[in-house]
Amino acid sequence: FEAVPNEPFMRLWCAAECLGAVVGGLAHQPEVLWIEADVTHHAQNRFGRGIVQSGRHAHDLLNAAGLDGEGEIFGASDSGIDHDHCFFHDPVHNVPFMFPAGQVGRHRSIARYDYQESVMNDQSKKDRVMGHGTHVIGSVLGWAGQDHNMKAYHGIAPKSRVAFYDLGLVSEGSKMQVPGPLHQTV
């Protein structure tokens, strides 16, 4: 089991064949108020691009018609982007961290990457591996190359770029913080 710091609950793991006995035994304890499954979620975007574009997993109709995001920059905020992930790799241009207002860099997929300086440092300028921000932005513009083994997971608009604001609090795990006043930050 694992006691969760600062939380009034614990996590318990057991072999599948023991689950009924463990749950039954715990349910009869007066201290136990609630029992639920802790489901681990995994990003599974293999068919996302086709489903969004046509309603069918194998049809990339918009990309086939030339609508692939080329020349477009969209804005997003999330827990961060793992810019070392193959979907965002650019061997020529660095990620444009904290560029002056109104300016963008030349990175292939990240036009700019801003963050709240009071909660970030050089070691934390990216999402943990496969975090939520990486998943979301990869779903939109992820592109690892036509011959890469991840090509089935490419984003909906793989030639677009993102102007990103990192809301992640790296020191506090998966928590995010919206800076204020927001209209002066973005």
TrEMBL record:
Family: Belongs to the peptidase S8 family.
Listed GO MF terms: serine-type endopeptidase activity
One GO biological process term: proteolysis
UniProt protein name: Peptidase S8/S53 domain-containing protein
Species for this entry: Eutreptiella gymnastica
UniProt-listed SUPFAM superfamilies: Subtilisin-like (SSF52743)
The organism's taxonomic lineage, starting at the top: Eukaryota, Discoba, Euglenozoa, Euglenida, Spirocuta
UniProt feature coiled coil, ranges: none
Peptidase S8/S53 domain: residues covered: 72-176
